[in-house]
Amino acid sequence: MSREYIARDPRTGLPLNVGNAPKRKKVETVIDEGPWSIIRAEDIISLASGEIESVTVNWKWNDMKLGKASGVRALSRLIGIQIHIVHKILEEALIDQDDEVRIAALQALPLVAEQHSGELFEVMEVLLDDPVAEVRQAASKCLGDVASVFPSATHYMMIDELRHSDKGRRKEAWRGLRGMVKVWPDVVVGHLDDILQEDNVELRRESAKLLRGLIEKGGSAVWDLITWSMQDEDVQVRRSAANSLSTLANHYPKVALLVVEIGIFDDDNKVRDRIVKCLNVLDTTSMRFRSLVMQGVRHREISVRMACIRLVPRFLSEIEARDLANELIRQELNPEIIERLEAMIFDEELEGDESSKNRFLQPAIPIPDRDKAIMALEEGVLDGKSISPEPKNDAPIIEFPESNSADSTGGGERNTAHRNLYKRKNLKQAADPQDESKDNASEGNNKSKQSANKFKGYKSISQDDYLDDDDFDNDFTDPEKSDRLDDADLY
Length: 491
Hints:
Blueprint: H1 41-49, E1 55-59, E2 62-66, H2 68-73, H3 83-94, H4 99-115, H5 120-127, H6 133-146, H7 155-162, H8 167-180, H9 185-195, H10 201-208, H11 211-218, H12 220-230, H13 235-242, H14 245-251, H15 253-263, H16 269-279, H17 287-296, H18 302-311, H19 318-328, H20 335-345, H21 348-351, H22 354-359, H23 369-379, E3 381-382, E4 385-386, E5 397-398, H24 406-409, E6 423-424, H25 427-431, H26 436-455, H27 487-490
Antiparallel strand pairs: 1-2, 3-4, 5-6
């Protein structure tokens, strides 16, 4: 039974950090279909070891004769119990004199190495410089397949292949490095740390494209890589690094703000556009962010100025934003930005139409029900019905004699407080002998109420009684004999 493979850093020997993907990534290409995939299992070992020269199979309705190379290619079907036998045969096939056998062995290596690697990678490293071009291509492709599964075993091979002059071999190595991004982020960061300092601009461009996928699990080392790339002399490198800023802002907004300060004054339009998109994600409460935006509203580029002006209302009050717009519009020449600033200056509450102004008015306080009732009583209407007392035509008017108050006043002048009190009585109630006692009691109550109302200035009078503009009773005419108020004080 094979031991669990542990990827270690070749420089320190410590286990490598694992990303969020499964620890052991299976090889994507398991077994390619071909005539070798239908060879009988009992014939594979014999055919691959050379005990038998060939076997005949029917592939797609055609009889085909397969030799040793097809047997070696089919070894990956026997991994499991027979892994040690398969591993030994594969090692011998990798150094076979036949080019086709070596190529077939390289194609079967990824699956066999999953269970038992042994000396396979050392032999594969030699085959990368094989004199036959087809073998070199097969070895390069095999490296791209196994690099993401065996990062420590292929570390030094990747260092050379990533920088190789041959474009095909370099392409396969970068394919293997991209496969490590989610599985072994520390390994990728280590490679990019060296490559971004290379003079070859093509290598730096390829490295910058991988930065975005390393942000979440790459750690603080990725922050330095992004910062270096944002200051690179090549515009393609800076653009690729700027593509990672939005992701960086989502995970590490404070770090992203530091990088944005570097890139916001970049000469390239695409870099600045990506910087502006990143600004929309950052925290507006940061003082560094506010300072950056206040610098951006005076930037020489129109797109940066417009983007920063749009961000101003997010952290400034309406009055502060209006004051800033008044200051900026004096020196602005772009019509689009001027229109934007005018919209910020316009105060709808003061300069808008009537309907716009009304929207800013404070709603009126609702009238309490008590005040509504008082207003209704003053108008003589309650719930749409008149409550004013109407005199009855059949009730006679009883006139009380006027009292001579000349003696009491001493001046012989009539007191202006004298008024005649007229009282109407309902004849029907008076004519009914059975209700005579009730009328007497009611009359007594009315008199007591009238006496009380006289002191209140006749503010409350029963519906059966009303006052005329004449005199009061003689009992309240002499102000010297009474402490009551005179006519002027009553009103």
